[in-house]
Predict the 3D structure of the following.
Amino acid sequence: MSEPIVDLRSDTVTRPTAAMRRAMAEAEVGDDVYREDPTVNRLQERAAEIFNREAALFVPSGTMGNQAAIKVHTHHGQEVICEERSHIVNFEMAMMSAFSGCLPRTIRAEDGILTWDLIAPQIHPRSDHRPRTGLVEIENTSNLAGGSVYPPEILNDICERTHAAGLPIHLDGARIFNASVATRKSVVELTRQFDSVMFCLSKGLGAPVGSMLVGSKAFIEDARLVRKMLGGGMRQAGVLAAAGLVALEESPKRLHIDHENARFLAEGLHEIPGINIDPAKVQSNILFLEVSATGLTSFEISKRLAARGVLANGSSPTTLRMVTHCDVDRAGCERALKVLREVLETQQKSVAV
Ligand SMILES: *Cc1c(COP(=O)(O)O)cnc(C)c1O
């Protein structure tokens, strides 16, 4: 009897729910480039309402949302301040340089959490020598730092001081609803002071496609032009927005389950010889485990797990990443732990021989 695959590679692997598929099949549509798709319009209105903003824009991906925001906020030849492990630097195909002509000014921060003390020395006003700072960018939760969550008072402090320095600030909130669950603060409280926010419908919220930008009317009008430049004008996109609406209304309520499962996994992993992880650092749905003491690379472990129906990717030769989401339940997490234990025991026996 073959058991279902436990896919912990990412929360992007989630499949649309039955309710999403139903909504997609029944969606009213029109040409969204003419702003005539009623379902896209409804999704944008709901997103603006939930984030207490003037306007919102449906974009095909988080990458497009972030890069459209960077384009709107900056000019060629400026710098964008962000954390060293940020998605905009590491996973967006150098678009801040290729498209917006900006240089990333990266800062390494403990657990990916920037503070004003780290940012302030990197801000460069107009000068005869140095590129000028155009934008500050924050990622919450921080993906590559293990789903770490910004304390709300740090966010407020950074936003206030960035504005006092005369600069805009953008939030990569791909997983802002996870941050909201982890801090028990509403997304409005966590995002109010940012000039623009991108969040993903397609990650933990489980929609098949799409992300949102929210901000002022003027910002969203500009971002709409950039979306078109990037080929993101999507015509009868209501079939996608319909799933996005279900995701936006229904999924935040269940994200706490993913966090509980991540914590459960972390505690189980902590007990496995050779695996190094601090369960106290697992704040949302992402785990990074250090595997060097197992005698195997993360890539080898990943391969052996996959052969037994558990998927998790190596993010470096010594680090394995796991992400919990709505398509992995507690039983799936238990199986992942059991299979990993077996893989490592087999390895230790073969070394002993
Ligand atoms: C996934 C993700 C994005 C957007 O990714 P797309 O695959 O382009 O939708 C942006 N920022 C972070 C932190 C992410 O994890």
Summary: The chain has two domains: 6-13+254-352, 18-250.
